[in-house]
Amino acid sequence: MARNSEKEETPDQHRLVLGVYALQLLGLMLVFTPIVGLALNYARRAQADGTIYASHFDWQIRTVWWTLLWGLLGGGLMYLGTSPEWRLAGVAGAILLLVTAFWFMYRVLKGYLYLSARRALPTRKHPQENA
């Protein structure tokens, strides 16, 4: 992906994105840290428009929201599994939480690797954009 240089990239932006990746990784132990990172993403997102960091902000935001969704679903299934007749739901919830944790780590590490290379993350193309 070509580097978009419409706006000046600053070391502060780089440090902020790196810090949010660190907060997300800490989220594997401290649940609230990705939420702090999410708030930082929303607060500083507009300043990153036109830079490679804009794709990282979008990536980080999507990572937290999807992890939260799948985590709540897995946790809900595990809660259902506390009842003997719903034990299978508990197993499914545990598997879903495990897969979600690995997916979350993959997203954080992939984002960090792209950031280290000072590259924008690939964005999804919608079918309407190709027409």
Please tell me about this protein's structure.
- This protein has helices at 11-26, 33-44, 53-80, 87-116, 127-130.
- The protein has 131 residues and is an all-alpha fold.
- It has one domain.
- The longest helix is centred in the C-terminal third of the chain and has 30 residues, at 87-116.
- The chain is elongated.
- It starts with 10 loop residues before the first helix and ends with a helix.
Class of secondary structure makeup? mainly alpha
Approximate strand percentage: under 5%
What are the segments in which pLDDT stays under 50 over at least 5 consecutive residues?
Answer: 1-5
Mean pLDDT: 89
Q: How many helices?
A: 5
How far apart, in Å, are the first and last alpha carbons?
20 Å
Total beta strand runs: 0
Total domain modules:
1
What topology emerges from the helices and strands here?
Blueprint: H1 11-26, H2 33-44, H3 53-80, H4 87-116, H5 127-130
